[in-house]
Amino acid sequence: MLRYAAVAGHKLQKAISACELIQVSASWPILNRSAVPVSLASYATGADVTEQKLAERWEVPAGSDLRVSTRSPAAVNIVFGEPDAISVQVDWKALPGSLPRFAIHKANAACIEVSEAVVESDSPAVIHAQIPARFCSLDLATAGGDVKLEGVQEARLAVRSNGGNVDVGKTRATQATISTGAPGSPSPGGSLSGNLTAASANIWTNGGSIHLSKFLGKQLSISSARELLAAVIEVPSLVADIKIDAAYAEHIFIDSGGLKLVVGELNCRPGAAMLQTSGAALEVSGLDGSAVLQSRGGPMQLRVHKNALSVYADSGGADIACYIPPDLVGHVSMLGRRLHIPPDLQASEGLQGRRMWNVMELQGSQREDGRLSGRQPMELSNSSEEVQKAGITLDAGLKGTITVQQQSWLAAIAAKQGLKR
Q1: Which of 32, 155, 158, 316 lies at a 20 to 30 A Cα distance from 63?
Q2: Residue extents of the structural domains in the chain
Q3: What CA–CA distances, in Å, run from 336 to 53, 144, 320?
Q4: pTM, two decimal places
Q5: Other residues' Cβ atoms within 10 Å of the Cβ of residue 103
């Protein structure tokens, strides 16, 4: 979409896109220390504008910080550079005689700040930075601009994009706080992508999609629920979704709001996980440890591994499909309108609370050599060591259908590959 802005005393000018600026500045030298007009461009409309460039380089110690704050949708691109320096360059276009739009200064010996003094929302800007590969924290705030990082290593990461998309690259942060939503806005937030490891992470996207290849840490939290101030009713989205290929954490909380939630491998031993949607589908391809899953009316698909402990899945009346390995030891409690279970397994009815549940007892697939398939060797008669039993509860209410199938991990991999083909 083309946008035009009227400027007093000048003709209409076309605002170039941030993508165009990125292409022009694919390789940029850090040379100039002040805003210098480097070229003159004339648009078909007749308005003359100059390309502006502001560049600085500062030597910094380990444990430094780069802070960027913009008041317009400026794009931010950050890559690794020198181990003891931070270099920043800002590119934008302006009419001749315009006031300097950006400022770069050294707040203290270990902190570089980039700020926007003059707002020109119809003239996109791009902020490039090179930072040390380790021990350099980032604090980035844009007014809707996209943020793209090569990564952050062993330092803090804070991003507030207010609707812009965020790519964290390969980040290993001590702490990560990421917000792609605009507070109070009815529009969904920007998307989040990349590979994120952090001791603690707190993410909010206000309905924006999330695609993470890995999400690792101790205390992890994701919320894509729409903000109440926006007065938006959660409805399942057919476009955006949350997809995490692998999540490993002691404690993890994910609220997808109205987005479909798909998690590949989920390992939360020795802690627990809580995953929920607001009527959208919920899928977990491999679960180890303990978890609570709630979809509030969305269909649910779950595959548990042999190391699953306590699992509670509540679909709010929608269908549930659960795949269990042949060597799982424990029990599966089921409540639903219809039950489909393997013919070689039996379920007995029992009253729990005020509702009649069906319970399957699972002993695992014992082999002739005295081992349980896929588990460590066991002396069944003399050993005092007991197999840790799993407790799985599937609650589809009085409307949903529950389907339980036995499937080995090899069969699961084959099924995935078949789907990809």
Answers
A1: 32
A2: 1-131
A3: 65, 45, 9
A4: 0.81
A5: 15
| Under 8 Å between Cβ of 213 and 195 | yes
Residues 6+ apart with CB under 8 A from 255: 222, 223, 224, 225, 276, 277
Q: Name the band, by pLDDT with cuts 50, 70 and 90, for residue 364.
A: confident
Instruction: Quote the Cα angle for 277-233-252, to 5°.
Output: 25
Strand blocks (E) in 95-165:
102-108, 111-116, 125-131, 136-141, 147-149, 156-160
Backbone φ and ψ for 415, nearest 5 degrees, come out as -65, -40
Alpha-carbon dihedral sign for residues 276, 273, 261, 410: negative
Residue 26's pLDDT is 34
How confident is the model over 63-100, as pLDDT tens digits? 999 999 999 899 999 999 999 999 999 999 888 777 78
Q: Let me know how many helices (H) and strands (E) the chain has, helices first.
A: 2, 27
